[in-house]
Structure formats: structure tokens, C-alpha cells
Amino acid sequence: MPAWIRLLLFLPGCLFLTGCWDLEEVDHRAFATTIGIDAAPRGRVLLSAQIPMPQRMLPPGSQGGRTGKTFNTVAITGETVRDAFGAMQTKAYRWLVIQQNKSVVLGEAAARAGATRYMDWLSRSPKAPPQALVYVADGRTAREILDFSPQQETLPGLQFIRSAETESKYQTNHVPVWLFRQKLVHKSKDPYAPLIGLDEHQGHYVQAGLAVFSSDRLAGKLGLDETAMFSLLTSHAHAGVLSVALPAGGRLTLRNFRGTTEIEALAVRGMPFFVLRVKVSGAITEMTSGRTRLAPRDVEGLERAVVRHLRPRLAAVVRKLQRWNADVIDLGEQLRVQRPALWRRIDWRAVYPAAGVRVEVEAEIKKSGVF
Amino acid sequence: MNKQPSLLSPAVLFALLLVTLLGTDFLTSPHDAARFCGASGYWAPPAAFILAVPFILLLYFFQRRFPGDDLFAAARASLGKYAAAAGNGLFLLVFLAWLVAALRDGGELAIGYFFSRTPLWAVVAFVMLGAAYAAVNGLSAIGRLASFVLLPTVALRLGIKLLAFDGLETSHLLPLFSARPLDCLRGGLALAGSLGPLAGVLLFHPSLADRERFLPVTLSAAGGALFIALVGIVGTIGVFGAEFTQDFTWPNLASVQRVNLPYLAIEQVGLLFLIVWLTMWLVALAFIVQIAALGIAGRFRPALNRTAAAVIAVVALIGAILIPDAGLIHLALATVRRWAIVPLAGYILLVYFVSLVRRPVPKRIGGG
Q: Cβ of B327 under 8 Å from any chain A Cβ?
């Protein structure tokens, strides 16, 4: 066959390069940046999606720029999350795209009812980004969170992400969809997610602590201080700040406060026992006494104060988690690895609340002077 | 008129085999490894390599014994006309089953991630058109294509898999010896099955330029494919854990898809990874079509070979479209991938041993 005939046969194929069945023009799409999921009456699901309005994000006065809310929230109920999403597709005049979704907010009532049914589609669909971060609305519905207009003129969904990308945040423990699901699937783990709330007076979002799940149900909420302890127990504290009351009066504040925890799983009389060795370090950034020249003995005294401050708080958080039967610090995972025979023999969920735990803390003050 | 086909160099053979093995592994090796070996699924690839050595040695000794005859000609000489026809037919049928299942499964993957509204027939038809175009141009054309894509695809695939180590938890990979030796063996067998396409070499080994290097080339291709499988297994089980890994249809892809690279141009490397894999898949399909065509037409009838390749492509296309259920086809592909090596190796072994017993006079040709 002559080459020019081959070329002629080949060229019509180029017509298909722009897409055919799956052609989606950008201006016909609506990009959901945050998805909210709530429990609705009669076992239904209320799905909300936050859709940015690009023309409102341009500065007023610029070509095409308009003032007003920078996003639009659409909400609809359905039998399931997927069902509601399908209904939302028919309601929107544009093609609703979830490939760019950045976060998922789960209403507190939905989290208490059991997260599996609400998260299944998002962790199963190839179109839903597994990197999207999971949040639980603190005492509110997800729709309220999505409807809220923060005073800072950014998209709320993007604001969550920026917060997550600021790793120096001490009390944040961000969980993407895939990790939430992973913890849900593993018998040796339980999931958790940051709590997000609203400060309506000041007009911004607030991080309200940590939502802790037992299996797939919200079992309890850790406050901000407790979440800080949780971060130490899970080695997620990287560059935080710790303020400690000193026995002689006044307060000590450490910067670059970080910690790692080693978990040793033991078998004591045929039952699991855990030793949690928490090593923390930080540099002095403030002493209300104003003292600057510290001898090694003084530094040791401050380190002891840090240990005295942390140990009961850490132990209290562990006890609380055991009471909720929520293994979010992966004690079960360590038992599976370190004592596989014992792990196979016991029913971890039944044993965990009564498992023995000892918390040991070692503190190191790395810099004691003044810059 | 018979025409001497052009000879394949060891480098081209290596590229052809490695790209084919990587294109037919279907990103499922972590699933098999986790299923049989649990957290220590990384023992499955070394076990698979050990199990693959006898198979590769069988191929090596076969091509040494029959330097001028391909498998089908050797079977006719050893087993007789009718038994060979049945055996050769079975051999081809296994490759055809592999082709149909691979085409459909890859089509489902492409639809799931790229073209949710495009009908299946359009996706598989376009892919098969590309694969058939390469196949009708002969083994040398597929070899050149494989050589062309080898470095970028392997480098990208390996690089992306290493990126997917982000978020790895070492506890997911422990205890080091959590699997029993028998489980490691089963995991190894499951992975070794994916080396089945190597058997296709016996349909064109007389066309190899340097058959002295047959053994190192095939061993390296198998080793390379299993090494990349090992990297995928460590990354996937390390990130997801053994239990969660088994929830995925394509766990290798899932572990890459969750990688997040903020501030970079490509936020989701999953799509790039999929494009790389689909390239390998296309080459693998072309290779299998060509193997089946060689089986039907032989090496010396290029016109018939082209027709056979086109017919096989159409048959595979119809087969892939007619199979009704995507879940069923994934299961079927998993079965073919794990077990197809048994009839393939069994038939080669049978021909080899019968030839030893009956001692037919093998043809000798130069160049080997």
C-alpha cells in the first residue's frame, strides 16, 4: 500500500484526539473542592459540595471580576453518598468534577453513626482523590462548615489544605482518605481525624482537636491539649511549642518541641502489656523568671519539670483512648509485630481497654541560652 | 516464497521480554504477595525467581536441542502430526486466553481511570488496532518498539514506585518472617506464573542472533521484572499494610495514586504511572498477538503471518467485548496469570522429553 494512502487512512484518527464520549470542556465543569457528608433523616445522606466561582475570585474591577462570595455550596440528599452525588449531577447545570476535591468534612452525627457507609464511595471511586483530607465537624453539620464564609478571602477547602501543609502546626494530625480507610480496615488500628469548628465571632475556622473512632464510629473527642499529647504518642509532633509551670513559680516555654515514642509490647501473664517510651526535646524560648544563665544542674531541673508535666497528661490520654476502645496510637499494630503469637491468640478489641500501659518520658532541653 | 526473517539481537530480546513481562503483570503482584505471604510478602519475588529458574533452564535446553526448529516444528517431529496439532493448539489457546483477558482487563482499567463514558468496545478496539499494527509488522517491529520504550518506561515506573514509598510504615512489613515457608512458596508460584510469556520465545528462538546469550538474557528479563515487582510489593504493603492491600483490584496503581506532591506541576502521579503501564501493556499485547501469529503461520511466511496476526487481533477483540462481567474477567486474568505457566511449561517439557526418548534428528543451523 503506498505511503500516502496509509497517511490518509491514519489522519482521520486525529479527529478523535480531542476526545469523543468523554469530552468535557473546562467551562462546562464545576470543580468540587470540598465535600461535606451529613446524616439526614430516615437514614438518608445529605451531600454538600463547595464549588469555587472563579469570576468572583478575580479582583473587583479586573476584567470579568465580580464581588461576592467566592464559592457556591450545593447540597442534596440521597439514599447513599453516591446516590446523592448522582442527584447533584442532575441538579447542577455543569458537569460536577470530584477529581480536584481537596477535603472531606464528615458531620459529627454521621461520624457517630459509623463512617464506613459515608466514606466507602470516596475511598473506592477511581475519580475521588485518595489524598483528600478527612475532617470531622465539631458539634456541627458538615454543611454548616461548608456554608461558612471565612473572613479571609480564600476557598475554605483550600484553607484546610494550607493548614495541613504547614507542618509546624503542633496540634494537627491530618489524615487523607486512603489513610482513614487503611486504619478502618486493619484490625490492629482505629482511625482518627482532625476536628474542625467555627469561630463565627471572629469569622474563621478553628481546629478543635481530634475525633477518635472506635472501629468506624466516633467514640470521643480529644481537646487541643490532649491532641498535643496524642501527637507525641504517635511521633507526629515536629516543631511545636510547650508551656510548663515550674515548681518554683513562673513558666517555661519550649520551641521546636518535638517527640518520638517507642512502643514495646510485652506479654505479662499471657496478656499484653505496653511500655511507651516518649522522648521529647525542645529549646527554651521563654522563661517568665527572665533567667538566662543556666547551669547544667538547672537544665536538669527544667527537664524534670517537663517530664512531670507530660507524664500524667500522656497517661491520661492513653487511659481515655482505652476507655473509648479506640486504638489510634497503634498499640495493636505493635503487638502484632512484636508478639505475633499473642496477637493471634487474643481478640484485640476485647483485650485493649484493659491492657496494661506504662508511660516513660525522657526530656532533653537542647538550647538554654538567649539568641 | 520462504523468506529468512531478520535476526533479533540479545538487547532487543531483553527489551521485548522485560517490557512484555511488565505489561502483563497487571499491577497485581502486591495483591498476590499479601494474600499468600501477609506482611512479609517481599519473600514472594525471590521465591518466584528461584521457581522460575527451572522453567528458564527448560527453555534454554529446549532451544539448544532444537536450534533450527521452533516449538511447534519440534513437537511435530517428536509427538507426531496429530498429538502435536492438539498440543500446539492448546499452547496457542493459552496465549489467546491471556490475550483476551489482558485486553479486557486493561480496557476496564483505562475506562475506570480515564474514559468513564466511552464504551468498552471503542477503548479495546483502539488499543487492539495499535497492538495489531505493531504485530502485523513482525517481531522485529515489536522488538524495536520495546527497545524504544524500555528505558523511559522502566525508569519512570521505578522512579514513581520509589516516590510511592512516602508514607511507608515499617511495622506493616514486619515481622520479617511472618509467612511460613509453604506460604512463601505459594506466593512465589503465584508470581512466577506471570513469567509465562517467556515460553513464547520458543516460537522464534531460531531467529535470535546470539543464542549463546539466551540464558543470561531470559534470566535478566525475569529478574528485572521480579525486582520491579519486589519494589512494588515493598512500597504497597509498606504503605497500605497486608490487609488493605488485598482490598484493591490494582494495588500497585492505588499506592501510586495516593502520592501527593504539593507545589509540583504534577499533583497526581497516578495518571503518569498509568500511562507508563499502558505503554508496556500495548507492547505486551502486540507481542502476544505476534506469538500466536507465529504459531499459526510459522516464521517463513510473512504474508500469512500478517493475516494471522490480524485475525487473532479480531478474535481477541471480539472475545474481550463479549465477556460480560468485569469482575469475572479480572478473576479470569488472575487465574491465567497464576496458572497459565503450568500448561505452557508442561507442554514444552513433554516435547523435550519425548524428543529425548525418540531421539529425532534435530536440524542444525548456523548462528547459534
A: no
CA distance B226 to B44: 9
User: Does the beta-carbon distance from B262 to A165 stay under 8 Å?
Assistant: yes
The answer to whether residue A173 neighbours chain B at the CB level (below 8 Å) is no
DSSP assigned state of A237: -
Is a pLDDT exceeding 90 seen at residue A147?
Answer: no
What's the mean per-residue pLDDT of chain B?
A: 89
Interface residue of A178, A274, A331 to substitute, partner B, most B CBs within 10 Å = A178
Report yes or no for ipTM above 0.90: no
- Dihedral sign, Cα of residue A100, residue A104, residue A105, residue A109: positive
Beta bridge partners, A96, equal: A30
List of chain A residues whose C-beta atoms are within 8 Å of the C-beta of residue B254: 130, 178
Judge whether A278 and A358 are in contact, CB under 8 Å: no
The whole-chain average pLDDT of chain A stands at 87
A340 contacts B178? CB cut-off 8 A: yes
How many Å separate Cα B168 from the centre of its chain?
Answer: 28
The DSSP line for B233-286 is HHHHHHHHHHHHHTT-SSHHHHHHHT---TTSS-S-HHHHHHHHHHHHHHHHHH
Distance of CA B38 to the CA centre of its chain: 24
Q: Which DSSP state fits B42?
A: G
Read off the pLDDT of each residue in B328-353 and give the average, rounded to a whole number.
Answer: 87
Chain A touched by B175 (CB under 8 Å): yes
CA distances for B126 relative to A175, A329, B104, B130, B279, angstroms: 40, 50, 12, 6, 13
Residue B200 CB partners (closer than 8 Å, separation 6+)? B95, B287, B288, B291
* Cβ–Cβ pairs < 8 A, chains A and B: 52
User: Could you tell me the pLDDT band of residue A329, with boundaries at 50, 70 and 90?
Assistant: very high
Examine the pLDDT at B297 and tell me if it is beyond 90.
no
Q: What CA–CA distance (Å, rounded) separates A335 from A346?
A: 11
